[in-house]
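Give me the fold.
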Amino acid sequence: MQRQGGASAAFKGNKQYLPSKPCQACGRPMSWRKRWAKVWEELRYCSDACRSARTGRHG
């Protein structure tokens, strides 16, 4: 069962139960983090380097 906000009720320290999604710049999987709970749906890049590389290409 998934709770809204990302964390699983079955988590109990086992990270395989956490949701993940790929970075749009490099494709690496990003695992859910508590500090990302409020912005998980908008999160697109795994790092500042990926964010700046992605925005730099369009300019």
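DSSP finds one helix and two strands in the chain.
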